[in-house]
């Protein structure tokens, strides 16, 4: 991958869209709290010279948060991103990015005026070439250090208010691992073991579907930028009614290792992957952030989980019941009493009654527990590449609910949701900034669609793609076989015609028995009559 990496670095230097831009982690940027990098296209901050955007003050919603987090001024994610920056690029039109150098989701081209809708497909409906590309792209992202972005390894207070920047280099893939850790980590209140656990800026509350939607969109966009393949879309794993981990094969996400069932098969490229930010309890006990170091191999042992927490994988009936719930989120502080679509989709409501249970998890959460490994930790779950396939399908269920119920924007809570989840709250740790309610809209408005939500004819065509691809691979051999078969058929037909012609040329008194009998021995001395007869026989043949 080294030569491939150098190629992409040369021709695709801008790789990401989010946290933390290297140009914004200098002492000066942190002290002035301004993240308005120059757009290389015109050499102006935020591309202002080309009308792409401008450097503006960050506007924060003043709506009250819920009572679950009773502190203020202790966590860097509060009123994101004010602890780090109070001025960022605000992009115009269809432009987006930390420096307005990119396009909004669903738009392409130098001027971001080309509208396209991408299709996310069932992973089992990908062609062989598409499956191979998926694995290659994932591994390339895992092995490629992000040139444009770093991750924070200390709090702003530990950085002495910007005088001592604390950031680390990680791979393109691991930037996303860190992001999922950072949004869900415990709040550090100061000192070892002094943490607040009842807080999560991306889970347990209304922002769960929108936050993960933005997360997947950025990840998808990042892979396109890294590889130059603008046709790439995240596939999904439709786990309804699954009895086991169907994607856990060496051709896809990796089978079990025969030597250790908790590890990935050596035949899979994912067996060499190392995880980070997966030891939540250790960070809490030490009162520190994840330091982004290697924490050992990727682990997974699907099905050997605690059966008392997850009895089985979700069924089609579970999904259908979840979709039938009319309320997006009731706002109940107790997750077990929140009978809503979001709460049931996330896994805290019973997918048969909608009522919460303190002992069992369903839907989204059940898959994480079932995987019984790196994916089973909320903070470290994105280490497993199955995370992307799983959350793409969760997002598709969210999309179905939006289309079926057509909720008004007012259904998304504007106030009193847990911290980070109000409609106008900026999602940590994204830069550029996104508000939760901006993604309470259909995926079509964001430039993508799911193959199983197409009409019947289109779905049939999609399901046939792998078989047509296999046919495409063998068609030269099929043509050769047909030609050979045709030649043999013609030869047989000619032989039969000649045989019939020979039979007609024989004297009538000769029978079929004589026709197939061996020829009589010829005399040593030929007379004229005999020679003529022999000549006629050869001519007939």
From TrEMBL:
The chain crosses the membrane at residues 474-499. The lineage of its organism: Eukaryota, Metazoa, Chordata, Craniata, Vertebrata. GO terms for biological process: melanin biosynthetic process; pigmentation. One of its GO terms (molecular function) is identical protein binding. Its cofactor is Cu(2+). InterPro entries: Di-copper_centre_dom_sf, LE_dom, Tyrosinase/Hemocyanin, Tyrosinase_Cu-bd. GO terms for cellular component: melanosome membrane. Its EC number is 1.14.18.1. The keyword Metal-binding applies. Residues 1-18 form the signal peptide. Belongs to the tyrosinase family. It is a single-pass type I membrane protein. CDD domains: EGF_Lam. This is Tyrosinase. Residues 203-220, 384-395 form the Tyrosinase copper-binding domain. It is an enzyme of class 1 (oxidoreductase). It is found in: Melanosome membrane. Keywords: Copper, Glycoprotein, Melanin biosynthesis, Membrane, Metal-binding, Monooxygenase, Oxidoreductase, Signal, Transmembrane, Transmembrane helix. Gene3D superfamilies: Di-copper center containing domain from catechol oxidase. The gene is TYR. PANTHER family: TYROSINASE (PTHR11474:SF124), TYROSINASE FAMILY MEMBER (PTHR11474).
């Amino acid at each position: 991958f080294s030569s491939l990496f150098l190629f992409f670095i040369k021709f695709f230097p801008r790789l990401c869209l989010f946290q933390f831009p290297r140009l914004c982690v200098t002492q000066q940027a942190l002290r002035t709290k301004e993240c308005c990098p120059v757009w290389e296209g015109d050499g102006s901050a935020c591309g202002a010279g080309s009308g792409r955007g401008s450097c503006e003050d960050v506007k924060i919603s003043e709506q009250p948060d819920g009572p679950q987090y009773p502190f203020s001024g202790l966590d860097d994610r509060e009123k994101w991103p004010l602890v780090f920056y109070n001025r960022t690029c605000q992009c115009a039109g269809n432009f987006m990015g930390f420096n307005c150098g990119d396009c909004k989701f669903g738009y392409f081209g130098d001027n971001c005026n080309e509208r396209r809708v991408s299709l996310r497909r069932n992973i089992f409906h990908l062609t062989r070439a598409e499956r191979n590309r998926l694995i290659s792209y994932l591994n390339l992202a895992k092995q490629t250090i992000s040139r444009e972005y770093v991750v924070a390894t200390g709090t702003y207070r530990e950085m002495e208010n910007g005088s001592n920047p604390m950031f680390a280099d990680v791979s393109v893939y691991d930037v996303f691992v860190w992001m999922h850790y950072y949004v869900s980590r415990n709040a550090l209140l100061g000192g070892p073991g002094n943490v607040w656990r009842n807080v999560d800026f991306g889970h347990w509350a209304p922002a769960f579907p929108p936050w993960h939607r933005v997360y997947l969109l950025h990840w998808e966009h990042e892979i396109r930028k890294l590889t130059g393949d603008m046709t790439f879309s995240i596939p999904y794993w439709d786990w309804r009614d699954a009895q086991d981990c169907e994607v856990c094969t060496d051709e896809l996400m990796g089978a079990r290792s025969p030597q250790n069932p908790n590890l990935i098969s050596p035949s899979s490229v994912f067996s060499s992957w190392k995880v980070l930010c997966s030891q939540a309890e250790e960070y809490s006990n030490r009162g520190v952030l994840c330091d982004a170091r290697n924490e050992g191999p990727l682990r997974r042992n699907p099905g050997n989980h605690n059966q008392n927490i997850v009895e089985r994988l979700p069924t089609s009936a579970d999904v259908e019941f979840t979709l039938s719930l009319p309320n997006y989120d009731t706002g109940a502080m107790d997750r077990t009493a929140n009978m809503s679509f979001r709460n049931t989709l996330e896994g805290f409501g019973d997918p048969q009654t909608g009522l919460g249970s303190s002992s069992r998890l369903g839907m989204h959460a059940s898959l994480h527990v079932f995987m019984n490994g790196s994916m089973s930790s909320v903070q470290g779950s994105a280490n497993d590449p199955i995370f992307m396939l799983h959350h793409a399908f969760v997002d598709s269920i969210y999309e179905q609910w939006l289309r079926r119920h057509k909720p008004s924007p007012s259904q998304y809570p504007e106030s009193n949701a847990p911290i980070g989840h109000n409609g106008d709250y900026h999602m940590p740790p994204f830069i550029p900034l996104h508000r939760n309610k901006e993604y309470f809209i259909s995926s079509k408005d964001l430039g993508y669609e799911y193959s199983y939500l197409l009409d019947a004819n289109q779905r049939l065509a999609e399901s046939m793609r792998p078989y047509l691809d296999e046919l495409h691979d063998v068609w030269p051999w099929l043509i050769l076989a047909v030609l050979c078969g045709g030649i043999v058929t013609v030869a047989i037909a000619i032989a039969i015609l000649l045989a019939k012609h020979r039979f007609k040329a024989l004297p009538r008194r000769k029978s079929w028995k004589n026709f197939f009998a061996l020829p009589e021995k010829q005399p040593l001395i030929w007379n004229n009559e005999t020679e003529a007869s022999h000549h006629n026989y050869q001519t007939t043949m």
